[in-house]
Specification:
The complex is a heterodimer. By secondary structure, chain A is of the alpha/beta class. Chain A is built from 9 helices and 9 strands. By secondary structure, chain B is mainly β. The chains are: A alpha/beta, B mainly beta.
Chain lengths: 304, 140
């Protein structure tokens, strides 16, 4: 039985295969509408995340399966002091597959060690969020037609932003990828990611505080939100939250075929005047999220 | 200074000066009823000063924990007043319940009865990371 805890759990071949299945689902969704008849997905969200949970639930419902679960810890036995290990052992009796979000880093790995059914990590604190990365990869492949030969700008919170770390890890396995890291001093990409991923794989990268400095070189601009929940000090959050606001004016030197992405939800980091720009891909990205999760559920349930 | 020689047991030698007590505690040597001697700041040709621990009993020694603390340590095994074996230590691939993850966001901070496990992820720089949250372990 396979679990998905970290994007590194999947080989490049497996990722490419998931993307192919997702694209096939997009081209003929009806063909897949009964693939999971009689199967149940449990969505265990120990912290709220409407978007990710609905995406998983929509994916399973679109495959003909059913969903059960909870959307916050207060409505589960966790509020009575139950451990993750116990919760998972019980939920495994009632479901065929589990998507789990937890505020504590490593919780899905604890779950996977005890589970009798496949576990999908739907986000664990500031650590991993592999299905967001798969969503990002499907978006890039669909919008750019390739996962190689790309210059990718990552902007905003590169320190705590798990989606950024996972995307760097995943994209570093493809050929001729360059990164432009755009962040204020306090939110720069951690040294260990630079050393263990970028430098180890000889990936070219540069760092800047100015979003416009390299915007003309980018094939992809990946914006991120500065997340309040990752700060222990509110004053730091307030000082940094609006450091970058992407608007039409800042895009004037960008390529015609730039792909602007954002894992959502956004707050102020992308002005709404960008939404109608054909280069804005972030709502499409949310849509791709459902299809890649459908492909993932099929794979993990070993449904042909 | 006189310290009795040991008949059957161990001489843990070449301990970095000042780390003797840490090892004494980690190996739970305070729980033994035999003679245990800790010599601190003994003369060393290699490093100037070193600590030494002598244990006058044949007990199971956790070589992995010792290797994690300092893999330059030598463990001499003594039988019938003679050193019969010298064990060199390696950095263990994994340590269990030797150190605690300091990340307040880590699941190990709340999950009951979960082992504290660290994995050696970078041998060259001796970096261990928490198995669960992957935060690196700050070594003393």
């Amino acid at each position: 039985m396979k679990h998905l805890i970290d994007i590194k759990d999947l080989s490049v071949e497996e990722i490419n295969n998931l993307i192919e299945v997702a694209k096939d689902i997009i081209s003929d969704e009806k063909k897949y509408s009964h693939k999971c008849d009689g199967k149940k997905l449990a969505t265990l969200f120990f912290e709220p995340s409407t978007r990710t949970r609905l995406s998983f639930e929509s994916a399973m419902l679109s495959l003909g399966g059913e969903v059960l679960g909870f959307s916050e810890a207060s409505s589960s036995s966790v509020s009575k002091g139950e451990t993750v290990s116990d919760t998972i052992r019980v939920v495994g009796c009632y479901s065929d597959i589990i998507a789990m979000r937890h505020p504590k880093e490593g919780a899905p790995l604890v779950a996977a060690e005890k589970s009798t059914v496949p576990i999908i990590n739907a986000g664990d604190g500031g650590h991993n969020h592999p299905t967001q990365t798969l969503t990002d990869l499907l978006t890039i492949k669909s919008e750019k037609g390739r996962l190689e030969n790309l210059t990718i700008g990552l902007c905003g919170d590169l320190k705590f932003g798990r989606t950024v770390h996972s995307l760097i890890t995943a994209m570093s396995r493809y050929k001729n990828i360059k990164f432009v890291l755009i962040a204020p001093e306090e939110l720069k990409l951690p040294e260990y990611v630079k050393k263990d991923v970028l430098e180890k794989n000889n990936i070219e990268y540069c760092e800047t505080k100015d979003i416009e400095e390299y915007i003309g070189n980018l094939d992809i601009l990946y914006m991120t939100r500065v997340q309040k929940e990752r700060f222990f000090n509110e004053a730091d959050y307030i000082r940094l939250k609006d450091y970058y606001i992407l608007n039409k004016e800042k895009l004037k030197n960008a390529k015609e075929d730039l792909c602007i992405m954002h894992p959502l939800p956004r707050v102020n980091e992308i002005a709404t005047d960008v939404d109608d720009d054909p280069r804005a891909c972030y709502f499409k990205q949310a849509n791709y999220g459902k299809y890649i999760r459908m492909a993932l559920i099929l794979k993990m349930l070993e449904v042909k | 200074m006189n310290i009795d020689s040991i008949k059957n047991g161990y001489v843990i030698d070449h301990i970095q000066a000042g780390k003797g007590m840490e090892i004494y505690e980690l190996l739970h040597l305070n729980e033994l009823d035999c003679q245990v001697a800790i010599i601190t700041n003994a003369k060393s040709q290699k490093t100037g000063k070193k600590d030494i621990i002598k244990i006058d009993k044949d007990i199971p020694i956790d070589l992995e924990t010792l290797g994690f603390i300092d893999h330059n340590i030598t463990v001499n095994i003594v039988k019938d007043d003679r050193i019969i074996d010298k064990r060199k230590l390696n950095l263990p691939e994994k340590i269990v319940n030797v150190a605690k993850c300091k990340n307040p966001r880590c699941i190990t901070s709340i999950e009951k009865d979960l082992d504290q496990i660290f994995i050696l992820t970078d041998k060259e720089n001796e970096v261990y990371r928490c198995k669960y949250c992957e935060m690196s372990l700050k070594r003393k």
